[in-house]
Amino acid sequence: MRDGLALLRRVMRNRLAALGLVLLTLIVLAALAAPILPLADPDAIDPARRLLPPFSAGAWLGTDTLGRDVLARLVWGTRLSLGVGVAASLLAALVGSAIGLVAGYAGGRTDGVLMRGIDVLMAFPYLLLALAVVAALGPGLLNALYAVVVANIPFFARNVRGATAGLRRREFVDAARLSGMGEARILLGEVLPNVLPVIIITASTTVGWMILETAGLSFLGLGSQPPQADLGSMLSEGRKALITAPHVAAVPGLVVFLIVMSMNLIGDGLRDALDPRLRSGIPGAPGAATRVARTVEGDQTAAPDPGALLQVTGLRTAFDTANGPVDAVKGVSLSVAPGECLGIIGESGSGKSVTALSIARLVASPPGVVRGGAVRFGGDDLLALPVGALQRLRGGRIAYVFQDPLTTLHPLMPVGAQVAEALRAHRPVPRAEADRRVVELFAAVKLPDPVSLVHAYPHELSGGQRQRVGIAMALANDPDLIIADEPTTALDVTIQAEILDLLDDLRRHRHLAVVFISHDFGVIARLCDRVAVMFQGTVVEEGGTRSVLTRPRHAYTRRLLAAVPVLGRSRRPEPAPRESSGAGWAVEVRGLDKTYAARRSLFGQSLFGRSRPAVTALKAVSLRVAAGETLGIVGESGSGKSTLARSLVGLNRPTGGTVLLDGRPLAELTAGGPRALGRTVQYVFQDPLSSLNPRKTIRRVLSAPLRFLAGVPSGEREERLGELMRSVDLDPAILDRYPHELSGGQAQRVAIARAIAAGARIIVLDEAVSALDVSVQAQVLRLLVALKERHGLTYLFISHDLAVVEAIADRVVVMAAGEIVEEGPGDRLFAAPEHPYTRRLVAAVPSLPS
Amino acid sequence: MGSYILGRLAALVPVLFGLSVIVFLIMALIPGDPATAILGPYATPENVARLRQDLGLDHSLPVRYATWLGNVLAGDLGRSSSLNRPVLDEVTERFAATLVLAGAALVLASVLGLLAGVLSAVRQFGLADKLVTLAVLVGISMPTFWLGLLLILVFAVRWRLLPVSGMVSIYGGGDLPDLLWHLALPAATLAIVAAGVIARLTRSAMLEVLRQDFVRTARAKGLTERRVVFGHALRAAMVTVIPVIGIQAGFVLGGAVYIETVFQWPGIGRMLVNAIATRDVLLVQGGVLVVAASYVLFNLLADILQRLLDPRIAP
Known about the structure:
The structure holds 2 protein chains of 2 kinds.
Chain A: H1 2-13, H2 15-32, H3 70-106, H4 108-122, H5 126-137, H6 141-168, H7 171-178, H8 183-219, H9 231-239, H10 247-274, H11 276-279, E1 291-292, E2 310-321, E3 324-336, E4 341-345, H12 352-359, E5 368-377, E6 380-381, H13 387-393, E7 398-401, H14 405-408, H15 415-424, H16 431-444, H17 450-453, H18 463-475, E8 481-485, H19 493-510, E9 513-518, H20 521-527, E10 530-535, E11 538-544, H21 545-550, H22 555-563, H23 580-583, E12 585-596, E13 615-626, E14 630-634, H24 641-648, E15 656-661, E16 664-665, H25 666-671, H26 673-680, E17 681-684, H27 688-691, H28 698-709, H29 714-727, H30 744-756, E18 762-766, H31 774-791, E19 794-799, H32 802-808, E20 811-816, E21 819-825, H33 826-831, H34 836-844
Parallel strand pairs in A: 1-5, 4-9, 4-10, 7-8, 8-9, 14-19, 14-20, 17-18, 18-19
Antiparallel strand pairs in A: 2-3, 2-5, 5-6, 10-11, 12-13, 12-15, 15-16, 20-21
Chain B: H1 2-28, H2 34-39, H3 45-55, H4 61-73, H5 87-122, H6 127-140, H7 144-158, H8 176-210, H9 213-220, H10 225-263, H11 268-277, H12 281-309
Helix pairs in contact in B: 1-4, 1-12, 5-6, 5-8, 5-10, 5-12, 6-8, 7-8, 7-10, 8-10, 9-10, 10-11, 10-12, 11-12
């Protein structure tokens, strides 16, 4: 109810939607009040008063061909049209949503059968299906209603199914299952609230059509039959006197138009209010260059440094918000000499990326605006340059390499064409020559088989190859400066090492200046001559990379460096001897296999291309974890570490082998319903925002395991919730917040609290700290260690980050291509790796100077 | 690509099968005896008996369906009782007229919708955006059967610029300029809703795309804004817009029923409405079947076009 009122308030804030709501309310009130309004008899025929014009005495809107009062007929007709239209929407919404929910949640064959049926209905052009139904049932208003319902069911079914199927795979549904909730409860309690906006939005877009279509069927003579008249049949009758008395047809049509328009206005308002992306007043589409409005006095008058290639002085970049501009960069000054590499390091929100993007004015604008400072490059102030001149510099003398090459390359263009385009944007190059030059560039960035890769699309390349394409694009016009914004963050560590070597090589051979933005000290140390440390929009420290890293002067830098786990430098106490003999193993995995079956296209794979061969994700994996032990599992993407982790809690079904938890087979635990499993083992996912239901408060999230797994009676739950929050160092006062109102670190603590709530002793942590900033990561790691001591937990800690694993794990297994290649105590294993793959992995980790 | 088309064609088989079942059921579901319903209350018992035999009403439903489907595949849709001519002949003639009208409307709607959508996205919250948003709102809320009447009143009756109705002039008509002259009003009326929907969707798709990383990459390359918008953003947005144009084709075909009634266009929509009124069941069946099947094929074309644009769609 409270939510409903809040929603109404949000809708009313939209002026157009408010207008629609007022208009519709008036029309509905008039229709409802028809019996008590002082209206003439709508069916009284008076041949003497035929076709009176509007504003005649006794007939405000005139009379029709039979002398009936148009106003009276209009009100009664509106009543009928509205009633039929709304009834049709409710029916279509109910039936269509039910089909969609079941199909989306059940999946598999049920989904297939239901959706094929919907496909058949969709195969008819919209009105034609309604016509077919009327043809079978015969003309009549009720039959027209059924016809419109049948024609609209597919929209609800398709939209709701899509939303449901998407939610079913979300991690918070997995987490709810592990919290002991049954399937029906998950469907109604976790999925439906998230699908409801989709149903409302679909209803709001289709109710207008449905009224329009029932009126239309009546207009065609297939809906309401005389003497019963809705707006459509009035229009149809009025058409006979169109030329002599246009008002008879014009008035009912106008009312249909007003009803449908007001419903569309309300629908738009609802959609805006329900779509969280639009909620906070979305800014306009970003333009060609960041707006510059240098209103803040800075030191842009500072003397130019003649030796610098790029000199940024007093840069101040802000984002416009509803509450005025918020500065992201607060007076940053930097300079880069020709051929020099400057690193910019900082955590999320430090302003490092905004600084980098501000240089060529690529910050999305609106909402971005440069409020002060100067960016000098080759004698020009880039902030004062007209857009045309700026475009000549971009990709010409200043080139960018961005973070995730999958999203930064155009998904629908061959990569060669994208690089060629960069060439031709700056000088007229004949196509053949551009093609040749692209192959040269691809060879220069060491792409394998450059000639054939030219025609590949981004999704056909590996992450490392895509980033090489990104670098080739940046090199296309022999720039003087490359600005690289976290270019290796999305890559595996061995690929990262290769890309860093490539960049280092290129910059030395081509005398390139590089501005390199990263959150990773190791990466910066490997590449950069100088480093600037950013914190909350300012540069807190700058200097030679080595000296900043070894002798940090600013307190923030020191804190940050202390939080960075460094491989080979974690001082762990010798692990206590395990009493594995008596208590048995907490986790025992025997010969686990997982193969994803081959996908064959309909006509078999020999004839028609891309069927997927069978993929082996796990190959005979065996491991044991003693009670109270922390086992680290490391590997790169595709190594099978996440498949293994999910198999341990039954989130995916292995094709062979067994899992024993506390000595009991996993199959036995899952067979006993969600409770037995959830009390034994819990899971913490990488991204807390996707593992927490966005529509549930923290209180409701944490209550689920207490209620369903631990069976805590509701009277004691409040106290337990408080204890639980304090045990993960959270203030119980935030229990009533929603996940998106928490910081990343807080949200992950909530997820950890959920995992320990019902006393499960085995916790699987799947990249649980990977999405966090280093300082937050260090705190969460400390929390995990403390919880383990307090509750005697057993951890399976999965991560790609060797240093983090070394810091927390007693023992480590290394996975590659679905197999365990090496196993041993962390410090020893990383100090003296035996398997060649482990050796490569360890060598690739960027290290800090000691 | 070849495998994709074959795969899509194979996926059409169950859809076409379901579609034919529904069309067949139109007749089976008619309350009472179809033969009497078709021939009307004044038919002689012999005629009713003969028609019952022709329709195979003595057999079970599946047998009747199989016979009917066999005839349909052989190109025999039966004989229209009200027009006394083969259904197929009437349907093809009328459908051709509808295709002219609906095709013109769809092209008009796509061009207008795309241009307006792009303009309004690029100038989000500007004057152009507000005007387009208003026009879209009016367009998608418009009862076209009413708008058609108003336009006739203004353009044909008052200003006498365009013909009131029909597809060609009765005397000396039939050439292309004459056809276009007759086409202008009905096609424009029919296009208005679809143009609104396409414009609205293009706008939101463009807004989504314009905020994506690869658009920033395009700007970082030094491309001009025109190339960024049309060469990169619109190209990506088309992937979402094309299926909508495919769906709009269905709405345009359906909406043609109104427009043909209002403008007396000799198309299949008007034919269907008359056939329903005169209970000419075979004509309804034939008409619905042909239009729905062509719509399915049209959507296949839209899918193929989308696949050409988007290499990520698996075959």
